[in-house]
Structure formats: structure tokens, C-alpha cells
């Protein structure tokens, strides 16, 4: 039998190409979340009264 060091076997190559459109799923998944967040912020600022209203400005932090 011998060894296979001098055996010229054809090598097998694969080319895999993936194409995808990331803009449409990104917009369709993130846009509702952004719109709902803005609407909740507006409702919060409209319904809050007095000194608590100054706590929820556009410059406030979400997490401490």
C-alpha cells in the first residue's frame, strides 16, 4: 500500500456567499420601539405636575 504523501487527490473547495438586506428588518423592528418610547416620554411630561416635571427633561439620564 504505502503512504499517501505522493498521492495527488483533488481538493474540495466551497464558496459560500450570504447576501441580505439589513435596513428593512432593522427599521421594522426598531421604529415601533422608538415611536412608543417617544410617545411614553411625551405622556410622562404632559401628565407630570410641578417640581417633578423638572426631573424629566431631555437632559435627564435613564440609568444612574
What does this structure look like?
The protein is mostly helical. It is built from one helix and no strands. The chain is rod-shaped. The termini are far apart. The mean pLDDT is 77. The chain crosses the membrane at residues 26-47.
Quick description:
The protein has 64 residues and is an all-alpha fold.
Descriptive labels:
1 helix; 64 residues; mainly alpha
Give the structural class. mainly alpha
N/C terminus separation: 73 Å
Q: In this structure, how is the largest beta sheet organized?
A: none
Number of separate strands: 0
Order of helices and strands: H
- Average pLDDT for all residues: 77
Low-confidence stretches: none
Instruction: Give the helix proportion (percent range).
Output: 25-40%
Number of helices: 1
Radius of gyration: 29 Å
What would you call the shape?
A: rod-shaped
Strand content is under 5%
Describe the secondary structure blueprint for this structure.
Layout (H helix, E strand, L loop, with lengths): L22 H25 L17
